Amino acid sequence: MTSLRTSRVGTRSLGAAVAAAGLLATLLSAAPASATPDPGDLTPGAAGSRQSADAAPEGRELAPGEIPGKDEIVHSRNIKHLANIPSTDSTVINSDLAFQGKYAYAGNYSGFTIYDIGNPKAPKTVSQVLCPGGQNDISVQGDLLFLSTDSSRSDDSCNSVSQPATEKSSWEGIKIFDIKDKKNPKYIKSVETSCGSHTHTVVPGHRGDVYLYVSSYSPNEAFPDCKPPHDGISVIKVPKKAPTQAAVVSFPILFPDGGNPGGPVNPGVSKTTGCHDITVLPSKNLAAGACMGDGILFDISKPEEPRVIDRVQDNVNFAFWHSATFNEQANKVVFTDELGGGGGATCNAVVGPDRGADGIYDITGRGDQRKLVFKSYFKIPRHQADTENCVAHNGSLIPVGGGRDIMVQAWYQGGVSVWDFTDSTKPKEIGYFERGPLSTDTLGVGGSWSAYYYNGHIYSNDIAKGLDVLRLDDWRTESAKWVWMDRLNVQSQPEYR
Predict the structure, then answer these.
(1) How many H-runs (helices) and E-runs (strands) does the chain carry?
(2) Rounded to whole angstroms, how far apart are CA atoms 410 and 387?
(3) Quick one: which of 29, 31, 40, 25 has its CA closest to 293?
């Protein structure tokens, strides 16, 4: 274990006395004063028993309408659970994933972990870096690792403690590590950004330089470094030959009109005060932004000056535009809605199939005339218990080619879903993996935060249970096993062929 701090700082607790029904009612009421995407203020609940990598159970297939027992592993016939590396600290939330070579990099609210996945059936922990700061969104490029800090800290060190954002000296932003030595990553640089860095996206530049599009939101007049308006993103340039000279080079305004006003104009919809996540498609100079109350399509041919092409809203069923995924042909975008901030039980009959779902949009037209055209919603067809937080979250394409569109996606306690959206109007689930509720009595916080396909396997970072490795065997996805990548930052989508 590599420790880059001396004192332990835990995440804040939701409070054990909150009942599931009461919390759900709060989360699904009219638009909150400030958005709360991702359960960053919550503690993984009722983690229960853990399976070792050597004892991953086979599981079984669910009967129609059935909810599995507490902690029970279930999955479709075309998915096999190969391994699990349990979390070493059940109080810490696990977050996003990135990949390079035979390594997986997993963020968590206390830092990040590097895994050796050279043998997917027996992954191994290489190192753990302790550097607190939610939510530690993560990406890798060459010998560099980038980590997002979106919680107000006393300074930019890995020994920092929580400090109110009302203090001018507080710090939030991007941390950069040298990961040439996987067993001993070195913290080499920090870049402070306006309103912190909830997520970030790697964008290729010239001569090997890279840019980071930093997404952040929820300004407040009381925050010296995060005052409204906050209608854009921070762009950081990272010189390949001198990464310690990384700095903010621009702050492009994406919403000159302020974006979606949210409630009370649009009840139940988040006011747009920045972006939550951006996915770029460098091969097409395109990007799709999930920006709280808005979904946007923009041109990134000039990385320091991204330019909005089209913008859409859904003030009927979308509460918080969370993330985006292009298909391989770049003529569709899947946007996710994080209804309830990831802490609510929204995968049930009461909420229904259209809220807390994915929205599938076709891209029509050419050049600056391109438009995002809504086609349908997709939500997992398996109802979850009222004690399970569940909503659309992070996923990636499975590179099957041939004009077919299939992706794998995390749904918190709804588990991992593999679904086909080749027909934009008729998406359907073709595989799944999930665990039963963490608790049958109270609403717990857990499940898959990110589920990504990388070099023949699905990797899921479970909030409470740690790293899961799955194998998908299905005739519709066999062609993907021939696609081999040396790196995958999901928010910087590769051209697979």
Answers:
(1) 1, 31
(2) 18
(3) 31
